[in-house]
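pasting for the record
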Amino acid sequence: MPHVESAPASNGPPPQDAWHAEFQRLLPLWESLGDSTKVIIPISISRVNQFDAARLDVEMSAMLKEQLVKVFSLMKFSCFFSYQPGLLFQYEPELDAFLEFLIWRFSIWVDKPTPGNALMNLRYRDERAAPITGKEVRTGLEGPGLSVSQKIFYCISFVGGQYVWSRLQSFSAFRRWGDSEQRPLARRAWGLVQNAEGLYRAASFFNLLLFLYGGRYKTIVERILKARLVYGSPNMNRAVSFEYMNRQLVWNEFSEMLLVLLPLLNSSSVKKFLLPFSKDKSAGSSGDEADCPICRSSPSIPFIALPCQHRYCYYCLRTRCLATSSYRCTRCNEVVVAIQRQGSI
C-alpha cells in the first residue's frame, strides 16, 4: 500500500514581527481615510439659480432706467434746456452704461453680490485662488472674491464692451455701411462687424453648452476671468418665492376666460335683468327727457319708440333694435314694437 505524506501544517504561529509589518502596511491607508483635509469636496451650483440671477439683474436695470426716465420727464429746464420726449432715446446706450456702472460700483467693486445674485444666494469667487483641500475647507464654498484686476476687466468687458458695441451698431446702421453703393472700406468694415457678431454668438453658444454640462461660467467673460458663481451661505434657501408667479398665472387665465365670455354676453340684456334688483329704479327716467337715454346727448335725428313715445337718436335706437329682436326701452323697460321719426304723421 503506497505511503501518502501529509502536508505540513499551515496554522502555525505567525512570525513575531507580523503584526508590526501589517500595521506599517495599513497605516498610510488609515491616515488617508481619516484626514478629511485631503478629500476634495465636490460642489454643484444650480444652473437655474445662475440664470435667474442674471435675469433679475436685467430687470433691476430696467426698473432703474424707467424711474430715471420718469424723473427727466418731470424736470423743467425753462431757461437753459427744455426736455424733449425723444431726447433720452438718443442717449439710451449712455444711460444703460451708466446704470450698469452704478450696479457694478456698488456691488462687485466692493465685494458684494449684485441684486440678482443676492436674491439667489450667489457670489463671485476667484477660482484660481480657491482652496481645494486643506484645514480651511469645510463646505467647498470657501475662497476669496475677485481680485482688483478681475473687477476692472469685468467692468471694461460688461459695461464698456456693451456700450461700444451698441454704439458701433447704431453708427454703422445710420451710415449705411452695408449698402452696395457705399465705398469699399465701409462695406469691408460692415463685413467685419457682421463676422465679429457671428463669431461672438457662436462662442456664446459653445460656452452655453459647456455651462449646461458642467455648471460653471455662465458667460464667456466669467470663463476668461475664472470668476465662478458659488453659494454665499451653504445653509440659505432660495430667496425667491413663486407666490407672485402663481397669482400672475391665475389672473392671466381669468382674463383670458373673460375675453372669451364677454363677446357672448349682451350688455343690454344684462342691464335689463339687473334693473328690477336696482335700488334706484327711477334712475332711467330721472334724466332729461329731451336727451337720448343711450348716448346722453341731444338727438341729431330724433326718433321715438313705439308705443312708449320716448325720444332717441335714430342710430342709437336703430342699432339696438337690429341687435335685439325684443329691445326694451331704456327709460320704461317696455318692448319697442316700432320706431317713428318725431313730428311725422
